Amino acid sequence: MRRQLVRLHRWFGVATALFLFVAGLTGAIIAWDHELDAALNPSFYQAHTAGQTLSSLELARRVETADPRLQVTYLPLAVEPGHTLQMMVLPRTDPATKQPYPLDFNQIAVDPVTGEIQGRREWGAVSLARLNLIPFIYKLHYTLQLPFTGGVDIGTWLMGIVGIVWLFDSVIALCLSFPSLKAWRKSFAFRLKRGGYALTFDLHRSGGVWIWGLLAIVALTSVSMNLSSQVVRPIVSRLSALTPDPFNNPEILRAPQPGDQVLSRERIVELAEQARKEMHVVAPPGGLYYAGFMHAYGVGFYTPGNDHGDSGLGNPWMYWDAATGKRLSTQIPGKGTAGDIFLQVQFPLHSGRILGLGGRILISAVGVAVAVLSITGLLIWLKKLNARRRSAQNANLARGTGGAAARS
User: Fold this and answer.
1) 184 contacts: CB under 8 Å, gap ≥ 6
2) Which CATH number goes with the domain that contains 294?
3) Is the pLDDT of residue 260 over 90?
């Protein structure tokens, strides 16, 4: 049985090593995406003009009026002092061609005093330019920058499958790390003085044992983040009832219909304020998102700069039909069924933000550790592969020498 487990661990590890190396290093970086992006691109984050700021809704209106080709799809509803207001945008349809207007950007940074656009960029573009570097790394982390093909997000599926393999391999690795109860201490030890291959082996085996629980959590949450609707929700729903997901529920999801009206952002914010009071949500409406494919608005409730959720289970979100104003779904962290709460905890665990600043530091360290485990695993495999090849060559030489001696 152990021989079969060794073989599985070897091939699972070889198959996923490169993916996990990239995911580990990029994950360590994007734990600080906001801070790093702001340090690299101060002109995209720091407003040029001091003074009384306009409301976010007014700024969005001015942006769309100045450039009718675009539509603001994500809008922070409050401005951090001294910062720009960063909006996500998509092209509208050109009535002449019936195709989207050509835009080479999907994110803008707006001066909140004047309404001037200070910067534009294609968030997630394949580019190592300073302006694009951190969004590029962020998207690389979960999609490998692979494109949609035939309506399928290849990168997200691939990284989700890697997460599943990694999760199974983590269990196998733990079993292999303790060949006997009497020798359990060896599985926690590092032969620092020996160096060389011995230390490489210990970094891989003992390093993995020390942080095995964290690795298992990251592996599980990576599956949840990439294949939630395809894998995780169906499994969890067999164990616990789930609140309908507005993005994957056919009773909620619908394409815009001809003649549909679109409620104003101001009206949606009013509805969000009413709902916040009814649901006893403490944080104010912090961000507004328009999902055109389902003709719905989403509103997140958080203070300025806390769009990721700096601690706990994240931020509340509510969704409204853009035509009727009917509330479609409500997601309040810590509320709902056991299955709901299990799903709510996935991103805070994966990002480390469930523990605040300390959790982000921890998840960065785990990301580096994943990269180290991937490299040491490959080095061990290569050493053993070379040893097997030398052994086979020696055996062939021995057989050849023996055959020659017999013929003589």
Assistant:
1) 178
2) 3.10.450
3) no
